[in-house]
């Protein structure tokens, strides 16, 4: 009865959507040459097979503030799964109330980036995870203290053993990072744009379709392509016209710090654009809060194009279709400290 | 088939438990005069009827760091549901890396406390919720800025309307606090001790039963009684013998600051003991990390008793039976900021 009622309704809806939105097969074929929808399964991660145990351990570690020296910050502090996988700050505030040098990128779908950090200095999420833990302005911890902290709690020892069953001493800083990588590889957010790429014309409205067309035609997609619409290659910020020092501070030369090649001055990884509408502020400097302004800056600085208001709004509308849905996250219950757990310290060491 | 197999097994298990643990009816009757098990339903909260909408809104607010001036701290930062509802720090670190004056108490089951804070200065959780938001060393925000932040996000406006349907302007600081109170009233953690109070002899082991008996006989239960084993009445810390200044710093005179009555110098609310084993460090000063040491200090300072090692361990074992299980918490997805959302500021104002 229900089934019988449903089929005509669905057919009707298909007919209606075919009437209001013309077939978008040409644009879809073009888009599928440039972009890819998120897969329906978890990705394979190099040298790090995903298992349910490892993912669960990684989730606990991701949410555990005791991996910071002070006991205040977890991965989730700056990559908050409640707010688009970032912290909505210009640059993050860390240990000792110090400000980080660059805007925290979203962790969502980050497994599909070609490399991690704005300058791509970490080849993968496991390498990335080790950075903030040790950075003096972020968690200010040491690998030794992280391992001592985890080893002090029998439940964590059990979880590491289950996650790395072939290892005799599984509680290591490397495995800590691998487990976090495994969990982060599950943080995928299918979006209306994926539904559209997969054939659902109704997933984007007319303005978003026009915005997508313009995103491709005007050249944005030259850098912002692939599964994450960016996150793969490196480009100078200000290819055609350098933005002001407010947006592109002179002191941060981007990938130059990694390669020490003059050509890499002010070169950054093209920002991945999934969930961009919910992860303001923008750019490595975090200086721009309005997505439309960010789009306009990109158009002028990278493409030498002055967008009309309507064009900029169309692209922003399209970018809104990249806001996806995270799988339900059950907040973990973490092991309790023991007498052997190193004490948190908020002290700021003078270096 | 399964059912048939199950019944004999259950019967066998009952016979076995009856053999190893003698009937504990006398102790249970005594305990039920002093303590109460957690109820199986949510409590009624004065002037704040609990509804699913209000609870969901309160959960979002509880986890939202944008209610702090800096955008760094949420309620969950210091009352972390992953770690026993507190932050495992001596005293919390807040805005500008300032240290709070007292150890953060657990939010779990806090709805059953007679009043909130170590000195009981807030009559209920709604009043409590307003404190840290405005405290300069915690979130350093203002009610006006909180309301402006929440009003800037249409999703929050919808949620407030659904939660307070009779009000024309529901997004207020009072309703913000009421919603948080509603959510916190759901954070109940039934424990083995509740199962034992409810009649399950097997829920406590012999050492825990002996520890409970001693907890009552030696006088602990005189202050640590009721549903939360404390959290109701006020007592001088150091009734018989003042602990050292390391544990009881001279500058913090406790409830005296609330009542300005000399009798209330160094008077504090008896700490509620549910989940005490997972919420180190202890006392308002947070100076004691070992629960056994805390128990010994209490015995000598409040009761004039020197416990034997076996006695102290028995009480600690009993206290372990107060560690409960939180209902599954699905991490919320929060509304995204808009152009109207006040910007976070980590600046420290000089007062």
TrEMBL record, chains A, B:
PROSITE patterns: CYTC. Binds 2 heme groups. Keywords: Electron transport, Heme, Iron, Metal-binding, Oxidoreductase, Periplasm, Peroxidase, Signal, Transport. Its main location: periplasm. It is found in: Periplasm. SUPFAM superfamilies: Cytochrome c. The keyword Ribosomal protein does not apply. Heme c 1 binds at residues 75, 78-79, 95. Its cofactor is heme. Heme c 2 binds at residues 220, 223-224, 298. The keyword S-adenosyl-L-methionine does not apply. Residues 1-23 form the signal peptide. GO terms for cellular component: periplasmic space. It holds the Pfam family CCP_MauG. GO terms for molecular function: cytochrome-c peroxidase activity; electron transfer activity; heme binding; metal ion binding. Residues 53-184, 206-323 form the Cytochrome c domain. Binds 2 heme groups per subunit. This is Cytochrome c peroxidase. It comes from Salipiger marinus. The lineage of its organism: Bacteria, Pseudomonadati, Pseudomonadota, Alphaproteobacteria, Rhodobacterales.
């Amino acid at each position: 009865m229900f089934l019988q009622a449903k089929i005509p309704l669905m057919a009707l809806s298909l007919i209606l959507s075919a009437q209001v939105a013309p077939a978008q097969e040409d644009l879809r074929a073009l888009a599928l040459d440039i972009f890819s929808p998120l897969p329906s399964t978890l990705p394979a991660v190099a040298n790090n097979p995903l298992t349910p145990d490892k993912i669960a351990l990684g989730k606990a570690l991701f949410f555990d503030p005791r991996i910071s020296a002070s006991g205040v910050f977890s991965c989730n502090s700056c990559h908050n799964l409640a707010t688009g996988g970032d912290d909505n700050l210009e640059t993050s505030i860390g240990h000792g109330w110090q400000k980080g040098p660059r805007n925290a990128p979203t962790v969502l779908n980050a497994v599909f980036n070609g490399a991690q950090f704005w300058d791509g200095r970490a080849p993968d999420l496991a390498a990335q995870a080790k950075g903030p833990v040790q950075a003096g302005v972020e968690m200010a911890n040491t690998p030794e203290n992280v391992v001592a902290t985890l080893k002090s709690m029998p439940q964590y020892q059990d979880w590491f053993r289950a996650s790395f069953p072939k290892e005799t001493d599984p509680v290591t800083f490397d495995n800590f990072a691998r487990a976090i990588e495994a969990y982060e590889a599950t943080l995928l957010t299918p979006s209306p744009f994926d539904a559209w790429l997969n054939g659902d014309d109704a997933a984007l409205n007319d303005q978003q379709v026009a915005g997508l067309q313009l995103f491709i035609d005007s050249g944005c997609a030259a850098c912002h392509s692939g599964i994450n619409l960016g996150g793969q290659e490196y480009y100078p910020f200000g290819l055609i016209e350098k933005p002001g020092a407010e947006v592109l501070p002179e002191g941060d030369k981007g990938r130059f710090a990694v390669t020490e090649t003059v050509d890499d001055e002010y070169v950054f990884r093209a920002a991945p654009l999934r969930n961009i509408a919910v992860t303001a502020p923008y750019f490595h400097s975090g200086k721009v809060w309005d997505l439309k302004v960010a789009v306009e800056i990109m158009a002028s600085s990278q493409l030498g194009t002055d967008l009309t208001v309507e064009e900029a709004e169309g692209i922003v509308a399209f970018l809104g279709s990249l806001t996806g849905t995270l799988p339900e996250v059950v907040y973990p219950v973490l092991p309790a400290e023991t007498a052997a757990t190193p004490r948190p310290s908020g002290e700021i060491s003078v270096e």
